[in-house]
Design goal:
This protein has about 450 residues and is α+β, with helices and mostly antiparallel strands. It has helices spanning about 1-35, 55-75, 75-85, 110-115, 140-155, 200-205, 210-230, 230-240, 245-250, 255-265, 265-275, 295-300, 310-315, 350-370, 375-380, 385-395, 400-410, 415-420, 430-435, 450-455, and strands at about 45-50, 50-55, 90, 95, 100, 105, 125, 130, 170, 180-185, 190-195, 210, 275-280, 285-290, 320-325, 330. It folds into three domains: about 30-155, Putative Large Serine Recombinase, Chain B, Domain 2 (Hect, E3 ligase catalytic domain fold, Alpha-Beta Complex), CATH 3.90.1750; about 170-330, no CATH class; about 350-455. Strands 9-13-14-15 form a four-stranded mixed sheet. Strands 10-11-12-16 form a four-stranded antiparallel sheet. A two-stranded antiparallel ribbon has the order 1-2. The longest helix is centred in the N-terminal third of the chain and has 32 residues, at about 1-35.
Length: about 450
């Protein structure tokens, strides 16, 4: 009985709240239809007196200046600059609580709202419905109509060439969204850069930057390679129950789907990628594509007509496949940087290791100066066998900090000439340090040197 009475009381209380909100909404609608001001701060150019809008002459002249300049120059920024040059400002006013506001300059962000507001031609707006107002207009209707035509022209869809195909899909390895950026407008350098978030700033994590052209080309190439490799996409389709003749038909359409990716227009390709890809994560050594398997199956069976799309239920329930692209495409600093520390203490370099690096530099130079000579002859000229000569040339790809440590005599005691020459040297600098006994370094994806020292 207690729960019953409580639920009944709650139902009536909710009913009263909804009735009150409906009455307030109807009241504002009737006020707007009668041309009255429905509430809120008065717009620029008007002052509120006894619930009615009265023209404020200094601010009204600023509104006319905005409309005239925008119609003549068709630029909001130019109108704002002229507004500031002529010294137009918002006048001071007090709220109902007695708080004083202004005087202040008119902001650039408010100009678009001013240009689209029909209150300046003597009308009121409530929930998108316009009615004749009782206040006096500030600008002529013909001037206001011309401004609306220019605004509509500016709001039309104009795809940028080249556009950002992966905008809204890019994330870095820390989970930060990567926004599209354009640097150096004359050269049209497009990048994706990590958003600035508070927790990353506190931890000293630098933003990640990746070139847009290369990343978009890598993503498209990875999708084409996936469609061209039957041994990879057939198991994916089997995971969602596609087998038998249907699987064979999808396999036969894979070549057509690969060609279709090249022939789609920018706008259609943008829609296809939005359906196929959940997100793109940029790591230090790879780019991960999170693909919807059901969307891949639909794209293979798509005939190319109309707009490619799948229903929302399929999108919500789609299984995810992670496709990794092993590539280092990130750009972490805008200036030149090498992981070489200054010499901080005197040490005695190992002559054998220093001589080995000198021999490696000479062998590397010999290879590129005499590329028409066989490797065996070049090795004989240095008194070495072919395998030893090849390993010697490979030492040129040592990490710069490892080379600096050997020249300064700061290498690990266990590192000798034989170990350095016979080591199966990888191209990854971090793996080189681990194999040769060097301590790991703090990469720029983590904290900066200053933050690491403070920690």
């Amino acid at each position: 009985m207690g729960r019953l009475i409580r639920n009944v009381l709650l139902t009536f209380a909710q009913f009263e709240r909804e009735i009150a909100s409906d009455r307030m909404r109807d009241k504002k609608m009737v006020m707007s239809q009668r041309g009255l001001w429905t509430g809120g701060n008065s717009p620029l150019g008007y002052a509120l007196r006894n619930g009615k809008l009265i023209i404020n002459p200094p601010e009204a002249e600023a509104v006319r200046c905005i409309f005239r300049t925008f119609v003549e120059q068709q630029s909001i920024s130019v109108a704002h600059k002229r507004l500031l040059a002529e010294g137009h400002r918002r006048e001071a006013w007090r709220s109902r609580t007695g708080r004083r506001h202004g005087p202040s300059p008119i902001s650039l962000t408010s100009l678009h709202h001013i240009l689209a507001n029909p209150v300046y031609i003597g009308e009121t707006v409530h929930r998108g419905e316009r009615s004749a107002g009782i206040h006096s207009p500030i600008v002529e209707r013909s001037l206001w109509d011309r401004a609306q035509i220019i605004l509509r022209e500016r709001e039309r869809f104009r795809p940028r060439q080249p556009g950002h195909l992966l905008s809204g899909l890019m994330f870095d390895a820390f989970g930060r969204r990567m926004h599209a950026r354009v640097f150096n407008r004359h050269a049209a350098s497009r990048y994706y850069e990590s958003a600035t978030v508070a927790w990353a700033r506190r931890q000293g994590i630098r933003p990640v930057c990746i070139q847009a052209d290369s990343s978009e080309a890598l993503v498209l190439a990875a999708l084409k390679q996936l469609f061209a490799d039957r041994t990879r996409f057939r198991p994916l389709l089997m995971q969602i129950g596609i087998t038998g003749l249907q699987l064979d038909r999808c396999s036969d359409c894979a070549g057509v789907a690969t060609v279709r990716l090249d022939r789609l227009s920018f706008r259609n390709l943008l829609g296809v990628l939005r359906v196929l890809i959940v997100r793109v994560e940029v790591a230090l050594d790879c780019i991960r594509l999170l693909l919807r398997i059901e969307a891949v199956a639909h794209f293979l069976a798509w005939d190319g007509l109309g707009v490619f799309a799948i229903d929302e239920l399929t999108t919500a329930r789609a299984r995810i496949y992670v496709l990794e692209i092993p590539v280092a495409a990130t750009r972490e600093r805008r200036r030149s940087w090498l992981p070489v520390e200054p010499r901080n203490r005197p040490a005695t370099p190992c002559p054998a290791l220093v001589g080995l690096l000198e021999d490696a530099r000479a062998a590397f130079k010999l290879v590129f100066e005499h590329r028409d000579v066989p490797i065996a002859d070049l090795a004989c000229s240095l008194g070495r066998k072919t395998g030893s000569f090849s390993r010697l040339v490979r030492l040129q790809y040592l990490a710069p900090d490892i080379v600096a440590a050997i020249l300064d005599g700061r290498q690990p005691p266990s590192l000798g000439r034989h170990q350095l020459l016979e080591c199966d040297l990888p191209m990854d600098w971090a793996l080189q340090r681990r194999l040769l006994g060097f301590p790991p370094r703090e990469e720029s994806w983590g904290r900066t040197r200053r933050s690491v020292a403070a920690a």
